[in-house]
Write a structure and sequence with these properties.
single chain, 892 residues, alpha/beta, 5-stranded parallel β-sheet, 20 strands, elongated, binds thiamine diphosphate, binds magnesium ion
Length: 892
Amino acid sequence: MANEAAVKTFGLDAQEIQEWIESFDAIFKQAGRESATLLLDRLRDRATALGVGHAFTANTPYLNTIPAEKQAVFPGDQEIERRIKSLIRWNALAMVVRANRMDHSIGGHISTYASAATLLEIGFNHFFRGRTPEFEGDTVYLQGHASPGVYARAFLEGRLSVEQLENFRRELRPNGGLSSYPHPWLMPDFWEFPTVSMGLSPLMAIYQARFNRYLEDRGLKPATDAKVWAFLGDGETDEPEALGAITLASRENLDNLIFVINCNLQRLDGPVRGNGKIVQELEAAFRGTGWNCIKVLWGSDWDPLFERDTEGLLANRLGQMVDGEMQKLTVSSGAYVREQVFGGDPRLLKMVEDYPDEVLRTLRQGGHDPRKVYAAYKAAVEHKGSPTVILARTIKGYGLGESGEGRNITHQQKKLNEEELREFRSRFGIPINDEQLNETPFYRPPDDSRELQYLRARRQALGGFVPTRKARSKPLEANHDKLFKEFHLGSEGREVSTTMALVGMLRQMLRDPEIGKLVVPIVPDEARTFGMESLFRLVGIYSSRGQLYEPVDVHTLLYYKEAKDGQILEEGITEAGSMGSFIAAGSAYATHGINTIPFFIYYSMFGLQRISDFIWAAADMRCRGFMVGGTAGRTTLAGEGLQHQDGNSHILALPIPNLRAYDPAFAYEIAVIVQDGIRRMYKDGESIFYYITVMNEAYAMPPMPAGVEEGILKGMYKFRASENKNAKLRAQLFGSGTILREALKAQEILAEKYGVAADVWSVTSYKALYNDGVDTERWNLLHPSETPRVSYFAQALAGSDGVLVAASDYLKALAKLVGQWAPRRLAVLGTDGFGRSESRAALRDFFEVDARFITLATLSELHREGKVEASLVEEAIRDLEINPEKPNPRCS
Ligand SMILES: Cc1ncc(C[n+]2csc(CCOP(=O)(O)OP(=O)(O)O)c2C)c(N)n1
Ligand SMILES: [Mg+2]
């Protein structure tokens, strides 16, 4: 061996090395594992003291972490569990094959579940605890592409019918069907967590586990040993989000968290690391950050071989082979395995001389061996002090035979020919005869069969079915009028920003006897940006360790107070992580039966733009809560420039169906929106959540005019009508957010200089107006004989006269959305283009959204209508000091 040759030159020989190893073995045998570890630690210290370097590695040999003799005894009935698993395998396969016979575009996946079956079944039969009134249950994130297997199990459990299975991926059939992947939106009684956008669920699971601790530390739920399990694909770990938060899990000692990575060495196109070893790479990443890492690589039939491997030759050889070679073994003969794995060294060949080729070919991977998987899970649930990752070697498409097992095409295999079906049927002992095979029927044994009795008994013992989703919290009771009232009164001339107003509301809510405890403020290192530091002292920053140091600002009023029961989740600079907390808090009404109300407050540019896919997942999950985009608006945040100035997020909020988006201008608007939101989400149980933009521009907050609440919520109301009832020239101006104030200034200029009487409207939500408009149109389309309905936007403008001009701090497309329902042309100003570092005034000039441009747009519209001469508009351009040849902000 190369190593031995190298050491020989330095004066050591193989025998001396063997003696060292034997001494170590003796210590291990006499004094035990801990003493052996201590000895290694001492030796390492000594080596360091002598200046003996050692290349850092976080890896262990390519072997099972739990040696055979340390393995917990499998308590189940292995034979009957194998039968159950076979039935599930068959039904999962039948679901996909049948669906694609009817329509080959329907799709579906066989090979992911085929590789994950044992990993999941050991969980279902022995570990995953259901949610009961007495115990909160475990939380399980399942690999999305394994859903056919989860459905097939639910079918055996009696939870899904043959018809539902037949309608897999046919959700629009009469009586409904099954969604392709886990979607709580589509199957709200079944799926809890959407996992199919790869990489999101590992991060969500980490923050879920942390949030569970937060709830315990704050006394909102009792401390339990409930676990969060996340099943991932090995290919999935390439998504940056997948490993992006693993240090939080170890830092927070989340021993309530278990990752199971299904290392079938393949992703969609081919091997995950053909030229490397994904298991070792992941082991180094997780061990390097302090996770407890359990490798389950080899099945029990390998144990005798490792026993013979006293010199570590086999371990070495397996450690050398790259994953591409490993994958090839799966599709090759026993003779090939002998040649490739053992052929390089006569000592290795000797080890398997009594193994026939056929036995070598079928040596199992650890992830397909129930006993190995059980032992790993047991060790994981019993492990204390850090999160656990289980790296389980499996074969993609296991059981699909030569057409699928381990092949690069296996991920997308959806059809099996008759021969392949027959083989699968026989291999897994499914009682279906050859004539029936063509039909590929589902098979469920009688209710009183041993299989179903066993399966039900196991689930009963574990507290019921998993997954099951249910809204478990009781509705809030109070109406909270008192909390919000003061914000209806205005600021009496005091200049405040909408951000300050919102923080003021948060402070009020935090003091409330009903919701005070439930509010979860979440910030990604921006609390000071939003003037939230007063909350640090008021409710504390959550820290599972309390505060182990005296903060530098301890003598100040607003010091940085960390506490074990702190309420603020100060996440550091991670919008994705903060969203993970939002999702955990926003779904706690279902997961825990607790109405936590997250307020996630962040730099608006780094929300919908950066982490939209998490927000989509939150929507799918029916999360509740408030996302607050701070320092919003392309021209309202001065100075920060191109990357920070957000003129996009209200456009990006459009596609998310149950996200209500508001761009309020005044404190009372926010108060109305938030109070109503709490009612709708936490009293009426609606599956909606909120996006509210707030700004840092300070101005006097007016008192709320009478009767505007409905308009605020529906998207617009008239804020200030013109007092001049007789003017010939008239206009309706629409402003949103801080740009409403530009419209108000324009109202004055138009009245004073140009004799135009303009009414000013506050548009709080173009999204709400747009949704109402398209819903109205749709109704009219479908009801041709009935009196057509009129959109809220059109209703609001009925009877108003004059030209229409809208301005917002967002893309022009936003206001243009509603132009189609306007009684006349709607002229739109907006902030298309890259931002700039500048003052507000300069930015609003540059983006053409200030009072001057609103004035100009109004006069221009009046000219279009033939009400004023072009010369007047020309004159106005001069008077308003507008440069007509200025750069176009959209593309400069
Ligand atoms: C974000 C995202 N990108 C791409 C896909 C498409 N996709 C679905 S499964 C898959 C391969 C999965 O491989 P792996 O994670 O190893 O899981 P396996 O099926 O092998 O268990 C891909 C690329 C997706 N679902 N989500
Ligand atoms: Mg894979």
